[in-house]
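Quick entry between incubations.
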Amino acid sequence: MAKYYITTAIDYVNGNPHLGHAYEKIGADVIARFKRLAGYDAFFLTGTDEHSLNVARQAEAEGLSTQEFCDIMSGRFRNAWDKLNISYDRFIRTTDQDHVATVQDIVRRANERGYIYRGTYSGYYCVSCERFIEKGDLIDGKCPFHPSREPEWVEETNYFFALSEFQEPLLRHIQEHPDFILPAARRNEVVNRIKEGLQDVSVSRSTLTWGVPFPEEIDDSQVVYVWFDALINYLTGAGYTPGTDEFGKWWPADLHYIGKDITWFHCVIWPATLMAAGVPLPETIFGHGFVTFKGAKMSKSEGIVVDPLKVVDSLGADPLRYYLMKVVPHGQDGDFSFEGLAEAYNADLANDLGNLVNRTTAMIKKYFKGQVPSPTGVYGPLDEELKAVEESVAQRAHEMMEELDPTSALSEIWRLITAANKYIEDSAPWVLAREGKRESLATVMLNLVEAIAKGTIMLSPFIPYSSQRIWDILGLQGKPEDIRWDGNLEISSLLPGICVTQTGPLFPRLDMESSDFTKGEFHLAELAKEKKKEGKPGQAGLSAKSPQDSGKGDKKVADLISIDDFAKLDLRVAEVITAERVEGTDKLVRLEIDLGCEKRQIVAGIAQFYKPEELVGKHIVVVANLEPARIRGVESKGMLLAGSTEDRSELAIITVDRPLPKGAKVR
Ligand code: MSP
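Done. Structure below.
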């Protein structure tokens, strides 16, 4: 099985994850999931970049040690990606011990080959970019990317990397490997800049202590410059063994999926570093575009941020994943709006897809008691037409995904959803039923199930939770991603004898008039700007004084909380899927719960009151946004609610008294 190693950029932890970060992780996740579906053995790396000056300063502003601060913030990124169903195989942190060892070894290798030397640096440094800016690049004395922040003057003796020696080898490599930098526009930008000439770059800092120490034999009073350190995460993640030429099972990377603002580091500094250290180069670096909000780049330093988790909390992960993949085209920028998201949700997910599934299952229930009929051999032109669309969509969408173009693939897959809806109208099953044409009716139902199942498989990289739900509703076994999609998609052997089920609507329609979504409550970018005006600390929202954490001032009555305080609790209905006693304890039960769009493990101290088997199937209420904790070594991501007497001699779990969809909000 061919391997596929895909990485994202690792995010700075000086602020919370925003929609721009989320877009990148979703894009990479869609590609990783597609590759697995297409039969590759894929490994997906993401994580956090923690040794920046910004991070050290933010930790200080929050009154925490840098490590404590990073632990909390890195946890927030990881939690956000879990909520968005990002299927990473490793979440790397640049403070991980194996990474520290890899960085030191790569510096050592480059030094042994004569590419590291001691020198004096003087020049401007933009703390937001974490990069040295040449004088000619300043605009009115400011960093071109961060005009609101003064660049700092830095003068220190440190270690340089002989980047200038790699000008010709880099140009040659790029020319000989047209897929090395994609899209082509990014490649041209990079090539033109390299041709202007490469200067050696400083790769250590003598005035900082927060970072990976330079190797002892060179000078461990200095730390490695944050970008030099960060890029090497891709090698650590591949399983590189320091001191050897074992670059790990996954190296070279097949795809570094990163934003267009950091192509210079990835397409120039990184390959030159690898050449200097004698390590093979990655296959492709893809510089994606930006998600903008009202036309401006999402940026924590400029105060324009949308919190992806708020969107997930109100709509679920899939609609956000779907919308971002639809609205930000291949390699270009795309504008996010709450109205646009709500419209895409209603028109595409609720109407096109949701209704297709609902109508089909309702008809199979009505005409065939829920059982998908077997092939009858009766086949007409409409049936042929639908089959032809299925085949061409499976082929073309596959090609588009191979070309790293999820947006076009998505619209191609939608061609099948639209064709299936049209097929219902054109073949009018209700007329076939009325006229007693049972065989034709059976063909239509079977064809519809097949079209939906194929669409579901192809959609599974984009909307994994919903795809699984549709798969289950159709009565299919296992998971849509267990099927192989290599351009052809063959599933007819799965269909005989399956029984469909019907539940509530897959995507309940959003009322555009009254929804919180379109009313502005979610216009967090505005809120972020307000906060910025209030001043720091609080970007990360960790200090006791931070506006994000402290609400609206002192409480007037000690025991009363405001509605805003209550709103901080994310209470959800969840179904208990499995329950078992935690070994070696009297009180603890480990529960696997289904929150509709996510499955999780929680631990509860209820073993004296309930047998594990009594809990399975209950619809309980959980605090879904509680920080994860380890209870007796078992991870718990959330807490169930229960009432108990003061002395805890009696206890009853809170359940809902009539069915609600899993994940429904309790307010
Ligand atoms: N820590 C560096 C990357 C080191 S990789 C070895 C960094 N971090 S970042 O937090 O500033 O950005 C992380 C990723 O998010 C980058 O790829 C960046 O381009 C991407 N995005 C940040 N804002 C974005 C948008 N508004 N839209 C899309 N992606 C953008 O750079």
